[in-house]
Amino acid sequence: MSAPDRDIIDGVPGRHWRMLADGRVQCDICPRECKLNEGQRGLCFVRARHDDGIVLTTYGRSSGFCIDPIEKKPLNHFLPGTPVLSFGTAGCNLTCRFCQNWDISKSRKMDRLMDHAPPEAIAEAALQNGCRSVAYTYNDPVIFHGYAIDVAAACRARGVRNVAVTAGYMGAAAREEFYDAMDAVNVDLKAFTQEFYKKLCSAELDAVLETLQYIRHETDVWLEITNLLIPDENDSPAEIDALSAWVVEKLGPDVPLHFTAFHPDYRMMDKPNTPPESVIRAWRIARGNGVRYAYTGNISDKATGSTYCHQCGLRLIGRDWHALSDWQLTGDGHCSRCGAACAGKFETRPGNWGRKRQPIRLRDYAGATQKG
């Protein structure tokens, strides 16, 4: 029996699927609604049909673990300065030609995944390393939905919070359960045109916008948004103007909006790096449209990477890449000068993790109770 077939047979039952009248099984995790015959995999590659249901072939298996600054996700208004234990699995439900984690998200070899990674061991590793949260990232947690939810439950039982880094391409049926398990999320809003999503991601913009509005208005999950600017694809002033105006109108001025610089990768090696001035221009447009917390990323610019009071303009949190300075928030998250509230989830003091990136081996925490 081939290895891929064995992965399917050994898969853990997945959630959100239904049997169709023609005998196929439809996966409802994302808007693709893959319709599968026995033994077939969805586009994400890791969700497959087995015995008249959907199984997840990557449950309990990870592509690696690393402790990062929370600002790297990026989340600038959620427990600033604290360490987050980051991990992912394999596969993706988008086909982005510019993917900057393509070696993980586009992986089709299950032997790339490391040893058994049960939820309790992940939670224990986070706790023992002083991580305030666990991030489901590197590839999209939408496709390892059930696994992410089980890890999140184990983390919450230990007082560790949960962070999703996602493209937001998710089916309505799966959203409620997933975001009930999360405390914060950064959604990658890849562009603001249907043409971009269709041509470069094989996806639909409207589904992502629906997810953003659901998170903002139907949950208590802290939301931030990232827009990767690709030269001559999604970086025009008109598109940035439309995107940032939509954020203010539909989500409100307090949702942080990160503009980050592209570098050539995967199947877009012909594109140049995004010039810093293009990223700063996007920052200015967003601020002009009323976004209170706009940021730049993948460039070095403290002025546009810092947090300012929306009322008096005081620099509340200074940032140089992921290192913090200029902390001017009171213990309850207000401006120390004028008293205006700064939107976010803050503690009395910021963390001091800084820019460090620390890989860990989960097998060092093998003493944790195993599940899955």
Quick one: CATH superfamily of the largest domain? Aldolase class I
Report the C-alpha radius of gyration, rounded. Answer: 20 Å
How would you sum up the major sheet?
9 strands, mixed
CATH class of the largest domain: Alpha Beta
Mean pLDDT: 93
In the predicted model, the low-confidence regions spanning at least 5 consecutive residues are: none
The total domain count is 2
CATH topological fold name of the largest domain: TIM Barrel
Give the termini distance in whole angstroms: 23 Å
Output the structural class.
alpha/beta
Shape: globular
Percent helix: 25-40%
So, CATH architecture of the largest domain? Alpha-Beta Barrel
Q: How do the strands line up in the largest sheet?
A: 14-13-12-11-10-9-8-7-18
Helix count equals: 10
How do the helices and strands follow one another from N- to C-terminus? HEEEEEEEEHHEHEHEHHEHEHEHEEEE
Number of beta-strand segments: 18
Query: How much of the residues is beta strand, in percent?
Result: 15-25%
Properties at a glance:
single chain, 372 residues, alpha/beta, TIM Barrel, 9-stranded mixed β-sheet, 3-stranded antiparallel β-sheet, 18 strands
What is the topology?
Layout: H1 3-9, E1 12-13, E2 17-19, E3 25-27, E4 35-36, E5 47-49, E6 54-56, E7 65-69, E8 83-87, H2 102-105, H3 119-128, E9 133-136, H4 145-157, E10 161-166, H5 172-180, E11 184-188, H6 194-201, H7 205-218, E12 222-229, H8 237-251, E13 257-261, H9 276-288, E14 294-297, H10 302-305, E15 307-308, E16 315-320, E17 323-325, E18 358-360
Parallel strand pairs: 8-9, 9-10, 10-11, 11-12, 12-13, 13-14
Antiparallel strand pairs: 1-6, 2-3, 3-4, 5-6, 7-8, 7-18, 15-16, 16-17
